[in-house]
Amino acid sequence: MIRARTALVAALLSGFPSPGAAQEPAALPQRARALAETGHLEEAERVARAGGAPLTVVLAEILRLRGRLASAESLFAEAARATLPGYRAAQAALAELSLERGDRAAALRRAGIVSAAYERDGGRWPAEDRTAAGRAYVVLGSDDPQAFRAALRAFDAAVAADPALSEPRIRLGDLFLDKYNAPDARTSYDEALRLAPNHPRALLGLAKLLAFDGSSAATAAARKSLAANPSLVPAHLLLGRLHLDAEEYDSAGAAARRALAVDSAAVSGWALLGAVAWLSGDSAGFARARDAAQRIQAKPVEFFREVAEAVARHRLYADAVRFGQEAVTLDSASPSALGGLGINELRLGRMEEGRAHLERAFARDPYNVWYKNTLDLLDEMRGFRTISTRRFRIVAPAKQSELLALYLGPLLEEAYDSLAARYEYRPTTPIRIELYDRHADFSVRTAGLTGIGALGVSFGNMLAMDSPSAREPGSFNWGSTAWHELTHAFTLGLSAHQVPRWVSEGLSVLEEHRARPGWGAGPSVEFLAAFKAGRLLPVSRLSEGFVRPSHPAELGFSYYEASLVCEMIERDRGRSALVAILKGYRDGLDTPGVLKSVLGMTAAEFDARFFAWLRERFAGPLAAIAPWDGKSPPGGEFVATLRSGRELLEQQRLDEAKAVLQRAAALFPEYAGAGAPELLLARVYLAKGDQRAAAAALSRHTARDESAWDANAEEARLRQAIGDAAGAAAALERMLWISPYQAEMHQRLASLAEQLRDYARALRERRAVVAMGPADPLEARYQLARALAQAGDVAAARREVLHVLETAPGFEKAQALLLELRKPSPEENRR
Hints:
Elements: H1 2-13, H2 28-37, H3 41-50, H4 56-65, H5 69-82, H6 87-101, H7 104-121, H8 127-140, H9 147-161, H10 167-178, H11 182-195, H12 200-212, H13 218-228, H14 233-245, H15 249-262, H16 267-279, H17 283-296, H18 301-312, H19 317-330, H20 335-347, H21 351-364, H22 369-381, E1 384-388, E2 392-397, H23 398-423, E3 431-436, H24 439-447, E4 456-458, E5 462-466, H25 478-494, H26 501-515, H27 525-532, H28 542-547, H29 554-573, H30 575-586, H31 591-599, H32 603-617, H33 619-623, H34 637-650, H35 654-667, H36 677-687, H37 691-702, H38 709-721, H39 725-736, H40 743-755, H41 759-771, H42 777-790, H43 794-807, H44 812-822, H45 826-830
């Protein structure tokens, strides 16, 4: 890294004489800027001072980078008055400094001077001055959003005037990224890097994009920009925020202090320190950071806005709203403050307040993609319907709401009771859960943009998730997803939202496992092969797997690993240990403190204990799976045996295939991935004409795979064929939690339930058929009336059949049912 930095400095400074040599005045600005761009700020300042008046603007820029704002502003003002070289950049800088200080009137006035001059004769300006005009328009955009378009045009004009200049391209990228327009931002940064492959701020732009996308490469990219410029304050702060996301508070604080050592006036640095202190429970440290920001800015809007954003990323949404309100109180016209507050209010289910703040933000910044997408979604949600249960508000598209609530309402009530008993805690109700029939809408609700890969999210007592129609049947289980997200309401609430993500996610997956057989993530060949190769994260670093996974599979591994950690703790120490862990976080302990307090172990001791338990827990499968390098497909005896069994089946060598596949099932009994042994065994049994054995094999698989649509469908068919009504009904019930949109499935399940005298389930299924808008609504409502009567609700049955007859008076079956319903009951006869 040192050699690379030395080479970069040499390349930037090539052609310039040594500091002690005589220097041409024309070369001094480039030399000073090159030194500043590579982080040699002291030397850059010395060179700039040696250049006298012609380098006034360059010197002011360097002083600004070092946090000496008063001196920088004085020099910028002098350059602007005397029209020294770069005076238009000085005018733009004065506008930026005024805006950062909170003096919007002065900022707009100063920026207006530049923009007015540009509009008069900017066509003759050189590229550097056009870039200054773009900067001025960005300042004007704080009051007039149309100015952002002018900024883009000015930066584009600068590029046209000097295609070899990187600066306007980087400014374009920053502007696009500020509006959440990642594709155009990437194009601008890439173009800048083609001109200057090691430009620190262009490298930083790409690092920000990677962080924006949640890529694990963001940390390395931020470090690369720091290697090019060790004094690049925004890069230190980005690295600090990445550490903070991973709950590495000490590293985040150290990064903030490194930034402030370069620029003590960097309000964002104090905001990062303030966020670290707040999340660490250090109220005195937070007050020191806040006071430092207030000494720099009379109204430190960005301090409170950035703290709000940081704590929201740690699921402290109520705190984020409070800090957002502080920011808006200081500047009620700030679109970023208004927008941040609105987003966090929506996360708390404060829909009207959140919308109002977002609308005000969007009015001032209509090019912000997050605001636009969220407001568009809120408009769409006006067509949603809310169905209430005792403790829940289920919000879904009107066409699906009644059907989904039939199943989700009872499931959530059951989950609430189960989790309340386990965690000795009851979240405040009602709890709001939103379901989206398009994954893109759920993604916008979660992160403002499309593309998020999650199935659900919990903001505490406000949950959101994909509805089952948002994905192809067989891609996920919406019942387990709802149970998972509701568990977060308990673990976040009990821990006062202080629980690390890995613990909360691990408990949610553990509770999925407890809810229904097969629900929740299970072991895969890749997971065990990665463990055998030493590629799983230790528990002490498990949060990294959620916020910056090092390879595509690591996020999934981390969910399952976290659930196994919780499983081991409960097995060894009981349910009460899980409760004590959550209370420990609530009381301000960090993970090492919780492990010591509750389990009596250091982090290193716990890591060793957990990995030893894993080796014991999966001893059989691990012996049959080879270590995995993460590149080539995993191998070992299990994989080879399964492959051999599949090949024998394809060759119709059924007896041999059966023996080999049974061997594969014994090697890894919990495996439920693609082409699992039990699925192939079912095909063997069917080929041999043994439907009962095939159904049993499928049952073993469906008990492990929560989204096995085809296997459940086949099992239901086979069990019905062999006269196992209860088994067929159970398979169909599992299918409902994968996708509930097949009317024929509901009709079959209703008939089976009636056969089993399970009239409550039959009634639910008849209601589901009606809710789906069937092709023959009269028949569906007649069947619903019959189900109501069978369930003992004769009055409701009469109302339903009368409704049918109002529409079709000649419907004979309905007439007969009405006559039957009008007969006195045995009790009435006795009276």
